[in-house]
Amino acid sequence: MNEQQDKPTTICAWCDEVLENGGPDVSHGICTACAEQFIQQLDLACPTRQRHALPIAS
Ligand SMILES: [Zn+2]
After folding, report:
1. Alpha helix segments (H runs only) across 1-58
2. To 10 degrees, the CA torsion angle through 51, 14, 34, 25?
3. Quick one: which of 11, 15, 44, 45 has the most CB atoms within 10 Å?
4. 3-state DSSP call for residue 27?
Protein backbone atom coordinates (compact mmCIF):
# COMPACT_ATOMS: atom_id res chain seq x y z
CA MET A 1 0.00 0.00 0.00
CA ASN A 2 2.96 2.27 0.59
CA GLU A 3 4.14 3.28 -2.85
CA GLN A 4 7.31 4.87 -1.49
CA GLN A 5 8.56 1.44 -0.45
CA ASP A 6 8.53 0.24 -4.04
CA LYS A 7 11.32 2.51 -5.16
CA PRO A 8 14.78 2.94 -3.67
CA THR A 9 15.91 5.91 -1.66
CA THR A 10 18.21 7.99 -3.83
CA ILE A 11 21.08 9.80 -2.14
CA CYS A 12 23.89 11.91 -3.55
CA ALA A 13 27.02 9.78 -3.79
CA TRP A 14 29.17 12.85 -3.07
CA CYS A 15 27.51 14.61 -0.13
CA ASP A 16 24.93 12.00 0.96
CA GLU A 17 22.07 14.44 0.52
CA VAL A 18 18.76 12.60 0.16
CA LEU A 19 17.48 13.28 -3.34
CA GLU A 20 14.38 11.10 -3.17
CA ASN A 21 12.85 9.32 -0.23
CA GLY A 22 11.91 5.71 -0.86
CA GLY A 23 12.24 2.24 0.55
CA PRO A 24 15.13 0.56 2.38
CA ASP A 25 17.08 0.04 -0.83
CA VAL A 26 19.53 2.84 -1.55
CA SER A 27 20.39 4.11 -4.99
CA HIS A 28 23.13 6.65 -5.57
CA GLY A 29 22.70 9.74 -7.67
CA ILE A 30 24.13 13.22 -7.71
CA CYS A 31 22.59 16.46 -6.51
CA THR A 32 22.68 19.59 -8.65
CA ALA A 33 25.31 21.29 -6.49
CA CYS A 34 27.71 18.34 -6.72
CA ALA A 35 26.93 17.92 -10.43
CA GLU A 36 28.02 21.52 -11.07
CA GLN A 37 31.23 20.96 -9.12
CA PHE A 38 31.82 17.72 -10.97
CA ILE A 39 31.41 19.42 -14.34
CA GLN A 40 33.79 22.20 -13.33
CA GLN A 41 36.38 19.61 -12.30
CA LEU A 42 35.92 17.85 -15.62
CA ASP A 43 36.57 21.12 -17.40
CA LEU A 44 39.77 21.61 -15.39
CA ALA A 45 40.88 18.04 -16.05
CA CYS A 46 40.33 18.28 -19.78
CA PRO A 47 43.28 20.12 -21.42
CA THR A 48 41.43 20.61 -24.67
CA ARG A 49 39.05 22.95 -22.90
CA GLN A 50 41.86 24.99 -21.39
CA ARG A 51 43.76 27.77 -23.08
CA HIS A 52 47.15 27.23 -21.47
CA ALA A 53 45.71 28.23 -18.11
CA LEU A 54 47.45 25.35 -16.37
CA PRO A 55 50.88 23.80 -17.05
CA ILE A 56 49.55 20.32 -17.77
CA ALA A 57 52.26 17.82 -18.61
CA SER A 58 51.55 15.81 -21.72
ZN1 LIG B 1 25.67 16.27 -3.47
Report:
1. 32-45
2. 140
3. 11
4. strand
How far apart CA 36 and CA 42 sit, in angstroms, is 10
Output the CA 34–ligand 1 centroid distance in Å. Answer: 4
Round the CA-based radius of gyration of the chain to a whole number and report it: 18
CA of 52 to the centre of ligand 1 (A): 30
Domain coordinates in residue numbering, the chain: 3-46
Confidence band, pLDDT 50/70/90 cuts, at residue 16: very high
Q: Provide the residue type at 27 as one letter.
A: S
Please write the tens of the pLDDT for every residue from 35-58. Answer: 999 999 888 887 676 565 556 566
Backbone phi, then psi, for 56, in 5-degree steps? -85, 120
